[in-house]
């Protein structure tokens, strides 16, 4: 498992969603000076890499995932000087800086697009994907991810442009070498400013079939049909990623993690197998609704094995249960009521016991939970609004439509960070841009900071353990059979060190099989530390234990 860029294996990444992390000027919107003021929290946790969701200039149709200036900072988030100060302070603390690169599409307010749409023969006319109308209508039946057609008509050109996401996110035309060069030189510019890595957004869609055939997938309630199988993971996309690697990633030794729209181990390996020279690791994306409806501990265990087998010889893994596109992990996979604390710790202990680079999403380290807003108007996420709309079109009642939106909404993960029990959770002195979860009086960082048995302290211990244990950071993985789908056993070994962990992924008790119980193992960590720790092989609900054997 040796790799050229070994330092990537020692990262523990913390993802900040800047809009919701810390407001510094009372406008209700998190910002870069706010992040700077909270670096002590990250240092206390012990992480060594910070992934910032997009902070570039953006009209915020999709909260920064619609960029109108790649070499500028969003006004609401501060200035380039603020970014420089944040980057310098991170480096001083030994924290790498990872930027979120959104290059499948830009904003429709990007100067390239403003020019591109004016005529068919301006210098930027081929920076986006333009097609003539077909029989007076859209070029094909493709749906946009956020609802409606993937095509938008522009009278000035008498043509449609293609947008996989919202109509304010036109797809960039990667078939155009001039566009590719613009992107590569922009990336180079950021690297020279001190960026250590990139998380590359929606990267499996870069290449499109130039004839744009109709999609045969069943239509959405609004009549349009997803084109995913036609545009996902095409060989042309891999060629563009390799260009990116040759031009920027390899020469500058930057860490890279691609967001790939697949959970299939073999498919993911095509992006991260080291021989292919594409990414260091991949973040698999599955739509929240699919994850909610299909996940199970059994499937997770199988996925862990498959992902491991696919890359153990020649690759690496990004490990996460949460990000800004998913429900809160303790609400989705754990139990955010009676087993809130132990299940949050169990999830953390399971994830950090796996091979790969762990990713912690803001608020996860204090067990933040999902939030159901009472009205659809309270939501900001375009996905939630579209889900609501599609359900209404399909004939559901507003109540049912709202429930569906509440369940899948990405706002579950985007409510402001809960720092303390003061008004607005210490996030802002103004009116927060998105409602704060009322449970902040109980669930907040201040409460947990000095409590040795808190979820926060569990994360701290796990991160420290990963730094001191080569078995965790480099070791092989074995998944001994436990006879139960919900009882996970993970064995990690490296150079004579062996860690064995058990995770009861269930609200029912579970027994470690006698043959697996370590004879003279030292307990390193237990999810029941507040209750006195590990008491024997009869595991309690969501009990997790890590042994050194
Ligand atoms: C990625 C991002 C998501 C965004 C989408 C479009 O999936 O994680 O937040 O909406 O790409 O950029
Ligand atoms: Ca602010």
Automatic annotation (TrEMBL):
Keywords: Glycosidase, Hydrolase. SUPFAM superfamilies: (Trans)glycosidases, Glycosyl hydrolase domain. CDD domains: AmyAc_SI_OligoGlu_DGase. It holds the Pfam family Alpha-amylase. Coiled coil: none annotated. Residues 15-414 form the Glycosyl hydrolase family 13 catalytic domain. Gene3D superfamilies: Glycosidases, Golgi alpha-mannosidase II, Oligo-1,6-glucosidase, Domain 2. It comes from the Bacteria. One of its GO terms (biological process) is oligosaccharide catabolic process. One of its GO terms (molecular function) is alpha-amylase activity. The keyword Hydrolase applies. Belongs to the glycosyl hydrolase 13 family. This is Alpha-glucosidase.
């Amino acid at each position: 498992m040796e790799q050229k860029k070994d330092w990537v294996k020692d990262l523990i990444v913390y993802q900040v969603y800047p809009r919701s992390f810390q407001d510094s000027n009372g406008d209700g919107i998190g910002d870069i000076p706010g992040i700077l003021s909270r670096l002590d929290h990250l240092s206390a946790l012990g992480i060594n890499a910070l992934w910032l969701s997009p902070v570039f200039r953006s009209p915020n149709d999709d909260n920064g995932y619609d960029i109108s200036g790649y070499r500028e900072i969003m006004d609401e988030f501060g200035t380039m000087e603020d970014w420089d100060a944040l980057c310098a302070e991170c480096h001083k603390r030994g924290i790498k800086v990872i930027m979120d690169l959104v290059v499948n599409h830009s904003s429709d307010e990007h100067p390239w697009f403003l020019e591109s749409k004016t005529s068919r023969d301006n210098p930027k006319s081929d920076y986006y994907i333009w097609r003539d109308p077909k029989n007076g209508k859209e070029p094909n039946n493709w749906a946009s991810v956020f609802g409606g057609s993937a095509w938008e008509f522009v009278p000035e050109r008498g043509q449609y442009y293609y947008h996989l996401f919202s109509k304010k996110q036109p797809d960039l035309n990667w078939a155009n070498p001039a566009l590719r060069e613009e992107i590569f030189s922009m990336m180079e510019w950021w690297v020279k400013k001190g960026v250590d890595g990139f998380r590359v957004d929606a990267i499996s869609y870069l290449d499109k079939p130039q004839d744009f055939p109709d999609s045969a997938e069943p239509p959405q309630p609004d009549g349009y049909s997803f084109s995913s199988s036609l545009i996902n993971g095409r060989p042309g996309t891999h060629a563009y990623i390799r260009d990116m690697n040759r031009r920027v990633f390899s020469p500058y030794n930057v860490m890279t993690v691609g967001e790939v729209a697949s959970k299939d181990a073999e498919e993911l390996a095509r992006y991260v197998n080291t021989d292919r020279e594409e990414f260091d690791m991949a973040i698999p994306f599955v739509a929240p609704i699919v994850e909610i409806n299909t996940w199970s501990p059994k499937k997770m265990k199988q996925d862990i094995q498959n992902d491991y087998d696919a890359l153990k010889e020649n690759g690496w893994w990004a490990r996460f249960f949460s990000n800004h596109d998913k429900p809160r992990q303790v609400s989705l996979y754990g139990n955010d009521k009676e087993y809130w604390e132990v299940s949050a710790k169990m999830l953390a202990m399971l994830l950090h016991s796996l091979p790969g680079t762990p990713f912690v999403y803001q608020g996860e380290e204090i067990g933040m939970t999902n939030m159901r807003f009472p009205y659809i108007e309270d939501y900001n996420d375009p996905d939630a609004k579209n889900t609501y709309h599609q359900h209404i079109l399909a004939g559901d009642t507003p109540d049912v439509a709202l429930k569906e939106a509440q369940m899948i909404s990405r706002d579950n993960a985007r409510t402001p960070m809960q720092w303390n029990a003061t008004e607005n959770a210490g996030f802002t002195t103004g009116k927060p841009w998105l409602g704060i979860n009322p449970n902040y009086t109980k669930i907040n960082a201040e409460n947990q900071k000095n409590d040795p048995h808190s979820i926060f302290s569990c994360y701290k211990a796990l991160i420290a353990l990963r730094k001191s244990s080569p078995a965790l950071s480099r070791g092989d993985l074995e998944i001994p059979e436990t006879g139960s789908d919900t009882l996970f056993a993970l064995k990690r070994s490296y150079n004579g060190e062996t860690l064995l962990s058990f995770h009861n992924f269930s609200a029912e008790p579970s027994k470690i099989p006698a043959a697996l119980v370590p004879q003279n193992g030292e307990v390193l960590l237990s999810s029941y530390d507040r209750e006195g720790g590990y008491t024997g092989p009869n595991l309690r609900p969501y009990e997790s234990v890590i042994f050194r054997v």
